[in-house]
Amino acid sequence: MNESDTGLRVLVTGVTGYLGSRLVVPLLAAGHRVRVLTRDADKLEGLPWAGDVEVSEGDATDPDACAAALADIDVAYYLLHSMDGGGDLSERDHEMAQTFADAADKAQVRRIIYLGGLHPDDEELSEHLASRVDVGNVFLDSPCRPPCCRQRS
């Protein structure tokens, strides 16, 4: 990806999931250059857009893989979670999001777009929803947040 390309340079994570796999098509149609981060590039075989994206193979828990995937990216879609049943979900989600946010900051990514969940402020949340809130807070505290967002008080 280089400066002469039209559109934004976009990274999509979670690309083998329901949302990530469907997000790629409209991004390409809008003229954006799309890179995807996947742990296993073979899982992209057969997807109609697979030949139209740049593939970065690696795990978002790895700072080097994040740095490579985020190099020269304007906007990153973070559609990851640790719902595989291994270990402490909340801790793993937090660490993965922090690794990604730190790499995005170093790469001077302008914005991270994250899909969280709505929740009432006055109710105890499940571990999954509490983890989603925590990951959102990691990104709110990141320099890659939208200009309209400010540090939480």
Q: CATH architecture, please?
A: 3-Layer(aba) Sandwich
Helix content range of the residues, please?
A: 25-40%
CATH topology: Rossmann fold
List the uncertain runs: none
Determine the number of helices (DSSP H or I, runs of at least 4 residues).
4
- Alpha-carbon Rg, integer: 15 Å
- N-C termini distance: 38 Å
Describe the largest sheet.
Answer: 5 strands, parallel
Global morphology: globular
CATH class: Alpha Beta
DSSP summary, beta strand count: 5
Rounded mean pLDDT is 86
Order of strands across the widest beta sheet?
3-2-1-4-5
Beta content comes to 5-15%
Count structural domains.
1
In the CATH hierarchy, what is the superfamily?
Answer: NAD(P)-binding Rossmann-like Domain
Q: SSE order in H/E notation?
A: EHEEHEHEH
Alpha-beta content class: alpha/beta
Descriptive report:
The protein is an alpha/beta fold and 153 residues long. The chain has a single domain (9-140), classed as Rossmann fold (3-Layer(aba) Sandwich). Helix content is 34%, strand content 14%. It has four helices and five strands. The protein has helices spanning 18-29, 63-70, 89-106, 127-140; strands at residues 9-12, 33-38, 54-57, 75-78, 111-114. A five-stranded parallel beta sheet has the order 3-2-1-4-5, with helices on both faces. Helix 1 (18-29) links the parallel strand 1 (9-12) and strand 2 (33-38). Helix 3 (89-106) runs parallel beside helix 4 (127-140). The longest helix has 18 residues, at 89-106. The protein starts with 8 loop residues before the first strand and ends in a 13-residue tail after the last helix. The model has no long low-confidence stretch (mean pLDDT 86).
